[in-house]
């Protein structure tokens, strides 16, 4: 769940996307879910554009995490979110034509990548890259006792996060009761597409973890109305959970201008999530661990 009301510089980029796609408009709209909805989502954004060149450092714990599969144990590989998939890098705060052009390339590259890896959503990208819709890959799983439906390709990464949470104190620091995953209609309006569509984003307890950069009713949420609070103080989820997700290729939108604290999206490489336990050899390309 993400979208912002663009500054003039970002509007130049957005306009270029619209022209390239043959679309008539790209309104400053976004996810239309409500904050109390248990299926995830938190409204549209009203904040300024996110800074460019967003980078992520993996907060490693130094300890190995393993998950069990039908064929044995697999070791989880730590990885950072890939910068070209981070939406903050698509909207640079600049009027520089070259930087706008580079941002546009990143957006187009991210669209190709998501289509190829996770499925084709009508109207976005080329069906030649992947004939199947994302819901073709939708699978149900449990995460920390909660039921959620995600793209099957990120289930190993979700299991790695869960295993790491349970192995340390973080698992006892927070006990959420609801989360949302894949959606089958785009909750953005315009040329952006939600990562929930691809099944690679999850929202954890939207009623307790705020999105203060989003449109009404979010600005009226008690956590958002409280002045002088940090993003960490506008959520029930502890930082230890954010750190754990980010160890395994997830990006937390609390870093984004939206301060969307409920939202994690897998922006790592799904082909590099696991490797055989006690071995440095990665799984073959395209192979995924069974949940």
How would you portray this structure in words?
The protein has 291 residues and is an alpha+beta fold. It has one domain. 23% of the residues lie in helices and 13% in strands. The protein has six helices and nine strands; from the N terminus they run αββαββααββααβββ. The protein has a four-stranded antiparallel β-sheet with strand order 5-6-8-7. Strands 1-2-9 form a three-stranded antiparallel β-sheet, covered by helices on one side. Helix 1 packs across helix 2 and helix 3 crosses helix 6. The longest helix is centred in the middle third of the chain and has 22 residues. The protein is globular. The N terminus and C terminus are likely disordered.
SSE layout and pairing:
Blueprint: H1 8-21, E1 66-69, E2 72-76, H2 97-118, E3 138-143, E4 146-151, H3 155-167, H4 170-173, E5 179-180, E6 201-204, H5 222-225, H6 239-247, E7 250-252, E8 263-266, E9 274-276
Antiparallel strand pairs: 1-2, 2-9, 3-4, 5-6, 6-8, 7-8
Short account of what is shown:
With 291 residues, this protein is α+β, with helices and mostly antiparallel strands. Helices cover 23% and strands 13% of the residues.
